[in-house]
Specification:
The chain has 13 helices and six strands. By secondary structure, it is α+β, with helices and mostly antiparallel strands. The chain has a six-stranded antiparallel beta sheet with strand order 4-5-3-2-1-6, covered by helices on one side. The longest helix has about 90 residues, at about 70-155.
């Protein structure tokens, strides 16, 4: 006997009524898919019952057919249980998938609702803003219409247009005019017009008086003059402040600085004036030339040599100290004059020709204010301390 025929003989024959019971209806499947826990439990119980019945029928068949072995019986039971487990897993997965789709649809629906709410809020805000603008425009239009009607009424009577600021004054004017008419009806010469009445004639007409107009013109002219002469006024005030500060310092040091340049070198000059009781007694004069140590080497070395020559010529003069230096493109020439020791008669022409600053510059006991004026006129910036 072949294996195929043997398997067919081993399979139990299920009656038609029992087979109909084992078939799951479409309605049961829809209940399980829709997430009905009760329907899912019923189907699982049905699968278990079918498994038991299949096991029982297999045992009966085995008992009837002694050819079926114990291993084959176990295989049939395992197969039935596996089928039932697969069906249950499939239903559970189907349920989970349906639940996930449902949650996604719910989230999409909720997001659409929120977006619609936001759009409605934006539209409502715009609508309210437009209503506010229309309301303001309507109020402005009403005010303009009222003002136009008032202007038409006053214009037809030959009266200047009224404003909110002149209503009270016009009422008082009308009262005064009534009193004047009553007084004019009396017999007698016309009242004399005083100078104050002539000046206040503009007030009777609702406008500014002549006196007020004149004062306004004078104030306007003064204001324009102040604006025009503002730089001069500021400079004058600064000079006054500086003068008041300097007047307090009659003994000390005044430092004056100047920066300039030629075609090749930058030049910085620093002068220190030592004074007491506003009289000069010592001066330090330093000139620094800065250039490129390679390109300007020739010019810098010439300046250094000139400084050395000046130092040699001033070697025999008392009260004169010269120092020279040249380093990394910077040449420095410093002259110190102590007027207490220096004698003008001893100054030689060679020293002056070599670049000596005395007596061409300032002399002993010279007034510090005069020195400051001269230095400032030559574009120096001076400060006392």
């Amino acid at each position: 006997m072949s294996k195929k025929k043997k398997k067919e003989e081993l399979q139990p024959v299920i009656p038609k009524e029992e087979a109909d019971k084992n078939v799951i209806s479409l309605e049961d499947v829809e209940d399980v898919v829709s997430g009905d826990d009760k329907a899912l439990s019923e189907q699982i119980e049905r699968v278990k019952d079918l498994t038991k019945e299949s096991s029982g029928s297999s045992e009966n068949q085995v008992s009837k057919d002694p050819v079926v072995s114990a291993d084959q019986q176990k295989q049939l039971v395992v197969a039935a249980e596996g089928k039932a487990s697969q069906d249950a897993q499939f239903l559970a997965q189907k349920k989970a998938e349906e639940e996930r789709l449902k949650q996604q649809q719910l989230a999409i629906h909720q997001r659409e609702i929120e977006e619609k709410k936001k759009e409605q809020q934006v539209l409502e805000a715009k609508r309210q803003e437009e209503q506010e603008i229309l309301k303001k425009q309507e109020e402005q239009r009403k005010k303009l219409e009222q003002q136009r009607i008032i202007n038409q009424q006053t214009g037809s009577k030959g009266i200047p247009p009224q404003t909110n600021q002149t209503i009270v004054s016009q009422q008082s004017i009308s009262t005064n005019n009534t009193q004047q008419v009553a007084s004019n009806n009396t017999i007698g010469p016309p009242p004399a017009v005083s100078e104050s009445d002539s000046l206040n004639d503009g007030n009777d007409k609702g406008g500014p008086s002549t006196f007020k107009r004149i004062m306004a013109g004078i104030l306007f002219i003064l204001l324009m003059a102040m604006v025009y002469f503002l730089p001069e006024i500021t400079s004058y005030m600064n000079d006054m402040n500086d003068k008041s500060k300097h007047e307090k310092i009659t003994s000390g040091v005044m430092e004056c600085n100047l920066k300039k340049s030629n075609k090749k070198l930058d030049i910085t000059i620093k002068a220190l004036f030592h004074f007491t009781n506003s009289q000069l007694y010592k001066m330090e004069y330093t000139t620094v030339h800065t250039g490129d140590k390679i390109d300007d080497k020739t010019d810098l070395e010439k300046l250094y040599d000139d400084c050395l020559t000046l130092k040699q010529e001033a070697g025999e003069l008392d009260g004169v100290t010269i120092s020279c230096s040249l380093n990394n493109g910077v040449n420095s020439n410093r002259q110190i004059l102590d007027y207490e020791k220096l004698d003008l008669k001893e100054v030689t022409s060679a020293y002056i020709e070599a670049g000596g600053i005395y007596p061409a510059e300032f002399k002993k006991s010279e007034n510090i204010d005069k020195i400051e004026s001269e230095m400032t006129a030559n574009n120096y910036v001076c400060n006392r301390r």
